[in-house]
Amino acid sequence: MAKNSSKSGSKPENDTVSIHDQKLVRGNGGELHQIAQGDTEILTTAQGGPVADDQNTLKIGERGPALMEDFHFREKIFHFDHERIPERVVHARGYGAHGYFETYESLAKYTRADIFQRAGEKTPAFVRFSTVAGSKGSFDLARDVRGFAVKLYTQEGNWDIVGNNIPVFFIQDAIKFPDVIHSVKPEPDRAFPQAQSAHDNFWDFITLTPESMHMIMWVMSDRAIPRSFRFMEGFGVHTFRFLNANDESTFVKFIWKPKLGLQSVVWNEAVKINGADPDFHRRDLWDSIQAGDFPEWELCVQLFDQDFADSFDFDILDPTKLIPEEVIEPIPVGRLVLDRMPDNFFAETEQVAFMTQNVPPGIDFSNDPLLQGRNFSYLDTQIKRLGSTNFTHLPINAPKCPMHHFQQDGHMAMRNPVGRANYQPNSWGQGPREHPQKGFRSFAEPAEGQKVRLRAESFADHYSQARQFFISQTVPEQQHIAMALTFELSKVETPAIRERMVSHLLNIDEGLAETVAEKLGIKKLPKKADAAVAPRDDLPASDALSIAKNGPESFKGRKVGVLVSDGCDGALVKKLQAALKKEGAMMEIVAPKVGGVEAADGTVIPGKQMIDGGPSVLYDAVALIVSSDGAKQLAKEATVRDFVADAFAHCKFIARVDAAQPLLDKAGVEPDEGVMPLGSAADIESFIESCRKLRLWAREPKVKL
Ligand code: HDE
To answer: Which domain holds residue 328?
Structure first.
């Protein structure tokens, strides 16, 4: 319809058009209005005023200057201009979910925390996973530590366990936190690289900070490229205290163990996933919760007393050290289930404010200098980020137990006192009072000493546990560490920094140092870095530190990508799907066109991904169910070749029908026991059986990624 330009200032024409069952009204500029009809709500301003036209600003004439009088436009644009709040200075990119914590047994012997008093008690929880270095819009599979922050809405106030997926940290004193974070963030003059530690500033700081060496081994390991949030451990890192009703203290470390076991990707895969699906981890959590496949972790505690603390090899206050699980066995005390996504990302995941100092009575801090510093930092950061001391009024941060206090007013105060008394004591008999028995009490730890700025001697060993971590890994895992170090240092432009790192590695493992030096082209090994305390080589390997040694022996929660073509065996696709479902695994169809393919029996198999959008890096294993003609056609496509070649190079199990041979040939696959026939029910069974191992690491030396 030609628009009528001669009608400036006249009423809309009320010419109606129907599109997708919606009645739209055409305005006098030709634009379409979705107007309220029947019981549809009427669009209003934030002040509640009904809006007649949300398509055009108020102007003098249809081409004329806009009028300041347009309060609807002003309100809408101003609000939009203020939509962003400062992103977190660290852990900016995160993703959260709701769920609950269920207590297994009463822990009254150790703690009076209400959450641990009754077996079977369920406590609401919110968890936010994150990367550390990247901005909000960065990609999910950066090599980085993952935040694992849990808010438990207990009957005695919120308890936040603000942990990571790595049990130790880079630094021993909170005063170094701005330095380590500045060094890893984009370099300030050039503002890159984003979400990456592979640059000079980071490695310069690290190599000048030997206390970081243990954490560096973890960050260079596959722990820093997890397959999914669902397959990560979480650690409280610091030593805390449990306090029982008699105020007796037991030291405690917290560990979250995923029910589905641990799993990571390989670096080459991570790089490709970041391009193919930068939201890989978010999507995984979203998909599994939407599918009713709720991720679950067990909370385990390592408990110990002062005698153990005094006799342990390292200082239990030093956050760069862990207590091996073989030394103190973690005891499961409850489980965490995530079963609901937030209704709104901003309101919940972005505005959630975790604080290490949020602990209920019965849980207390140790003197770990990093924890002490964190207890100071988090309140400040929330006030800055959320803009008001009243951030606790936001539903995601508000406790779910009764609360009464005299804090009042301030920006956006939503809970305001009623009555006369806003102080205590008062004579009006109004308002809450403290309760010495029920209230929070600190452990009465005796403390005296000189006012000093000193690092404890007992914190001085920086290499022994780094070595213990390295020797606890399987050979492929050790190779991944060597490759990660080589990759990261290859991006460091200053040779002296690369060499300095090798000099530290010589204190950790000579073989590792030599491999990295060789791969970096360092001809002559530097001399070992000076060590404040001679590194120990008598710490035994700890199997709990390896991912590969703790495989789930299950394919549950994992995903197979099935490449199909026209004329393929539709019944086989269905049988594979049924078998995977029984295993608790998922399947996704990858087709030349997203509309799907027509199987030999005439049924249509809809695609979830078009081949260009569904590379094999998105899957844990792949199946090739194609017809002979289909294989011939697909073999011409570079994306199909990459699909197969990458699955092979990333040591994945590949099930294939005979007709898929041209695809294997094109991808240069040299068949091994991980490339499996697919046709009979027995084939399906043995494919799934193999998939339980997750990867065929024995292939790795051959593919030389
Ligand atoms: Fe944090 N950290 N941190 N951190 N941290 C923040 O608080 C800080 C540390 C961790 O999903 C900030 O709300 C200091 C260790 C997680 O919202 C800030 C020190 C561990 C999250 C802050 C540390 C963590 C944060 C930034 C050194 C593992 C994300 C935004 C003493 C045990 C929580 C915010 C979420 C967030 C300070 C070290 C974990 C600035 C000063 C060690 C998981 O307050």
So the answer is: 94-188+222-393
